[in-house]
Amino acid sequence: MDQLTVLDLVDDDDGDVPVITQTKSKKKGKKTAQRGKGKQREDPVTPSASNSEKVAESIILDDDGDVTLIVGNLSTKIRVSSQVLRLASPVWKAMFSDRFAESQASEVEFPDDDEEALLVVLRVAHLHFLQLPPATPMPFHRLLDLAVICDKYDTVKIVRPFITAWSQNLEELSLQNGYEESLFIAWTFGYHSIYKSLASRLVLSAIIGPDGECLNSGGDFLGPTMPLNSIETILKVREDTISTLLNTCYKKFDATLATPHVCTVNQKHVEACHASIVGSLVRGFHQLGLFPDRPAASEISLNISELSASLINLPIYSCKTNTGSSYNYDYNTIRDHTACTKAAQLSDPIQDILKNIPSAALDSHKTHMDEQAKK
Ligand SMILES: [Zn+2]
């Protein structure tokens, strides 16, 4: 009996349907050892034993199946029908083509795939609905594993009737730190609004680690499973927005410093009035690391939410002058210069910038999700 190993999974020219390249792998000794220790059972039992216990478990999804998949850490064997696989997935259709039939192989290794996620897809394909997970939110890591399988083998369409129930808390989870890989799940199953919201949240909340890596607001890595170009796009929008924020602040500062100041209380106090405003900006920028050197946006590790809140709330102090006798401390003659600070306030322009941050979902992401949503 021949055995095949999936060696390569490469995109075809249009990048749409991956093509499986297979070569024969003669591993008779290993296979015999696995089979010798194996126990065979009918589905419905989901493999749940620890790795040390997982010795060649066999699951039969089709009594008349013509192929056995050797999955994950190569300890689970799943008997399936190659015809069902061809119907379920264009990738498997290519993989189990006529060339496969001619090879007369009956075992194929899937060493890189998560066993449970693959089994969910295979059970749907073989109509074993009673053995599927319940119609309740799936644990996040299971949903992510399922998304990886559905992306890799293009099997979103066959889990579509179930995925709404399994992913019903995804939107809620995607708002929390630690669930950033919701991006990949949303990208795979075509949940454009979840993708867009999460990408926007990450633009505002992402911080840059010491080695330039993208971290969530808690300082944790976002996870390895992300859609192509998603994090790069988020970081680009983040940096562009910070650049706009900094430019706006420095323009405001330069204008405040260089433009002749107008004191709305009494022009004879213009020097003190101007100095208190310029001094407030210098002090506030210095505390944020924005003065005296003017850092580039790429050097800012703070997230946009913190940076913009600090700038919006940057206190601009105004002087108080006494219009009466210098010996007269009558409150009626003390004048407050708060109104003179108006032109230097940063709040309005920064809020305008925050309202106009571009989307971190590329057109190519949206196109992909629209296509996935139709499956
Ligand atoms: Zn004034």
Automatic annotation (TrEMBL):
InterPro entries with a match to the protein in the record: BTB/POZ_dom (IPR000210), SKP1/BTB/POZ_sf (IPR011333)
- Limits of the BTB domain: 65-134
- The transmembrane segments are none
Ranges of Basic residues compositional bias? Answer: 24-38
Pfam families, per this entry? BTB
Region called Disordered, residue ranges: 1-54
Name of the featured protein = BTB domain-containing protein
Q: Which organism is it from?
A: Lophium mytilinum
